[in-house]
Amino acid sequence: MIKIHVTSLLVDDQEKALKFYTEKLGFVKKTEIPLGEHKWLTVVAANELNGVELVLEPIGFEPAKTYQKALKDAGIPLTSFKVDDLNKEYERLKSEGVKFSMEPKTMGPVIMAVLDDTCGNNIQLVQKL
Which three-class secondary structure state does DSSP give residue 90? Predict the structure, then answer.
């Protein structure tokens, strides 16, 4: 059986991303290893400390910048996170100044919303109904 161990998220600033993903979204820093100009920096869900790690990947490769910008400009989320109560998370995040390009909307078997992570990405939040 193959499982996801780590997955990457392109970010334009690792420190800004760490602050947003921990202070706003509630993730917990798991790993920080200096690697010259950048670092191997991962976060995990607070309730799954040994779960899938999200690498806050520095976007130093020009084609990656083009890809990230194209997705952002088109309004396409780079990734999706599951939440238990989307309306509650939406209200909490809005009260903390997080910007949403799509408010919670029921779409078939899910409710979804899209936020701006301040690091170049649209991020989708999803609650299964």
Answer: helix
What digits encode the pLDDT tens for the residues 74-87?
999 999 999 999 99
Prediction pTM value: 0.94
- How far is Cα 68 from Cα 59, in angstroms, rounded to an integer? 9
d(CA 57, CA 96): 24
The reply to whether 78 falls in a domain is: yes
| CA–CA separation, 30 and 45 (whole Å) | 9
Q: Which residues contact 94 (CB under 8 A, 6 or more apart)?
A: 100
Domain with residue 105: its CATH number is 3.10.180.10
The residue range of the domain holding 44 is: 6-128
